[in-house]
């Protein structure tokens, strides 16, 4: 039975690898193997040969080859005896998922104590620094990249080798989620979410303006998006209504342009910044122009304490007709509308780059991981492995879009589910991994700081992009040198 010390809370959507596996000796052996061996067998086969001239009978020997299949079996290691222990679990995905995992584990002597913190990542950081982290914990990217490299996560390779069902389950996950939690070729956690981003729009606003909706525009690209948003923008000052909203954060909107242009904030290996590239400058300049030149998106400075408007309230208050955000924002846009301003949601893939045709979306994922210093390795693994099953992953929805593909159906519940599903499935295929580095946990924050200034007109675009790249690279070099 789960013992909860605090009420489980919803995730904060904007909050934001070990080098050696610590393997249990009982789990080190591999699964049974069958080896086909070819042997040459000499057989003496008597054969009478009659020579015509002398009528002499000669006995000869015939040599033949025979293929023999020999089965070589490596015994399956005995399953460890699981002790009666209490595991500490910080921020499991959902309580139903945890309870189902316990049911599948079927080890009633293993109890679980759940810890939930409003600022759980920082709480974990303090605990890990003291060497006293929980046996199991929830982790995200980019923090996970950094902590895997610091030896915080237990490598799951021994259990993947010893339990075929566990390894088979992992084949059914969205590939990018597995990549996000793989370090030096070893899996460091079981992903449970597969996030992406897409376009949302207020159908009623478009209908009232007599403007074609984004999902009906045949060639939905940066240029046609701009043309559409110019038609949707009207009014002045505080009464201004905008065609769209631009966020500096990739999970909140800028992904459609940054990744659509082929730009990257940090290299795929996480060792250097790439945000000073011509592709990045093109993307950021386009967004800055949407705000300051074309005025189809509001200046970020106007969305402060004086107005109370943000990524969500611009939609609820009919102040912007289109936003780009994560799939996790769907229920917020739909279910938290103002009673006197209801509207019908529409969904669309991000616009294509007008030249390359590339679309941009932001991927992100969370996982359940084991602490490398846990005293209860086999017991913690016994509870972790069921998180790879369809039964458990299905209970993670609808709060998250599950990482296991065949468990995602439960996410699409309620109004709009049938409409958003194909859009999410499409963007999931090309969503870029969340920018992160194993060298420096907060490296990407430097870029966010600069792009925010660029959006507010406080820093020229090219200068800001190149400055962010230099600052990130300086930080990564210092981290690599241990300074």
Tell me the number of helical segments per DSSP (H or I, 4 or more residues long).
17
Which value, in Å, is the CA radius of gyration? 29 Å
At the fourth level of CATH, the homologous superfamily of the largest domain is Periplasmic binding protein-like II
Q: Strand order, biggest sheet?
A: 1-7-6-8-16-11
Q: Quickly count the domains.
A: 2
- Tell me the total number of β-strands: 16
The amount of helix comes to 25-40%
Text of the CATH class of the largest domain:
Alpha Beta
Overall pLDDT metric: 86
By CATH, the architecture of the largest domain is named 3-Layer(aba) Sandwich
Main beta-sheet annotation: 6 strands, mixed
The fold-level CATH name of the largest domain is D-Maltodextrin-Binding Protein, domain 2
Tell me about this structure.
The structure is a single chain. Strands 1-7-6-8-16-11 form a six-stranded mixed beta sheet, sandwiched between helices. It has a four-stranded mixed beta sheet with strand order 13-14-12-15. A two-stranded antiparallel sheet has the order 2-5. A hairpin with a 2-residue loop joins strand 9 and strand 10. With 483 residues, the chain is of the alpha/beta class. Helix 16 runs antiparallel to helix 17. The protein has two domains: 191 residues, Periplasmic binding protein-like II (D-Maltodextrin-Binding Protein, domain 2), CATH 3.40.190; 208 residues, Periplasmic binding protein-like II (D-Maltodextrin-Binding Protein, domain 2, 3-Layer(aba) Sandwich), CATH 3.40.190.10. The N terminus is likely disordered. The chain is globular, with a radius of gyration of 29 Å.
């Amino acid at each position: 039975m789960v013992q909860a010390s605090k009420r489980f809370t919803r995730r904060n959507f904007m909050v934001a690898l070990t080098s050696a596996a610590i393997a249990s000796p009982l789990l080190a052996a591999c699964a049974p193997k069958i080896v086909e061996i070819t042997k040459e067998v000499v057989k003496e086969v008597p054969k009478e040969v009659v020579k015509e001239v002398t009528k002499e009978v000669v006995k000869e020997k015939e040599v033949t080859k025979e293929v023999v299949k020999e089965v070589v079996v490596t015994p399956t290691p005995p399953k460890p005896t699981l002790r009666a222990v209490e595991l500490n679990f910080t921020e499991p995905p959902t309580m139903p998922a945890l309870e189902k995992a316990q049911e599948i584990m079927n080890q009633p002597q293993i109890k679980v104590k759940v810890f939930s913190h409003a600022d759980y990542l920082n709480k974990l950081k303090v605990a890990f620094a003291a060497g006293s982290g929980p046996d199991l914990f929830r982790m995200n990217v980019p923090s996970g990249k950094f902590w895997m490299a610091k030896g915080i996560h237990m490598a799951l390779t021994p259990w993947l080798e010893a339990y075929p069902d566990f390894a088979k389950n992992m084949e059914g996950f969205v590939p990018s989620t597995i990549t996000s939690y793989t370090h030096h070729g070893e899996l460091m956690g079981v992903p449970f979410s597969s996030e992406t981003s897409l376009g949302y729009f207020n159908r009623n606003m478009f209908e009232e303006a007599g403007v074609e909706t984004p999902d009906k525009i045949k060639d939905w690209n940066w240029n046609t998006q701009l043309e559409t948003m110019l038609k949707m923008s009207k009014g002045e000052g505080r009464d201004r209504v905008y065609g769209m909203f631009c966020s500096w954060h990739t999970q909140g909107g800028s992904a459609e342009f940054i990744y659509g242009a082929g730009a990257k904030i940090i290299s795929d290996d996480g060792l250097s910044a790439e945000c000073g590239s011509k592709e990045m400058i093109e993307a950021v300049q386009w967004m800055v122009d949407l705000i300051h030149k074309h005025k189809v998106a509001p200046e970020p400075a106007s969305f402060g304490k004086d107005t109370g408007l943000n990524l969500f309230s611009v939609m609820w208050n009919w102040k912007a007709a289109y936003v780009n955000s994560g799939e996790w924002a769907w229920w917020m846009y739909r279910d938290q509308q103002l009673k006197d301003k209801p509207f019908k949601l529409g969904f669309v893939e991000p616009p294509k780059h007008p030249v390359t045709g590339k679309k941009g979306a932001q991927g992100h994922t969370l996982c359940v991981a084991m602490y490398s210093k846990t005293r209860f390795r086999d017991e913690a693994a016994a509870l972790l492995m069921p998180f790879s099953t369809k039964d458990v992953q299905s209970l993670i929805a609808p709060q998250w879009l599950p990482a296991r593909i065949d468990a995602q159906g439960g996410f699409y519940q309620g109004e709009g589910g049938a409409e958003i599903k194909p859009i999410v499935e499409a963007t999931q295929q090309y969503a870029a991994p969340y920018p992160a580095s194993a060298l420096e946990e907060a490296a990407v924050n430097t870029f966010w700081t600069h792009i925010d200034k660029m959006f507010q007109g406080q820093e020229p675009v090219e200068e800001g992009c190149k400055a962010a790249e230099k600052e990130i690279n300086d930080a990564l070099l210092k981290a690599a040198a241990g300074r």
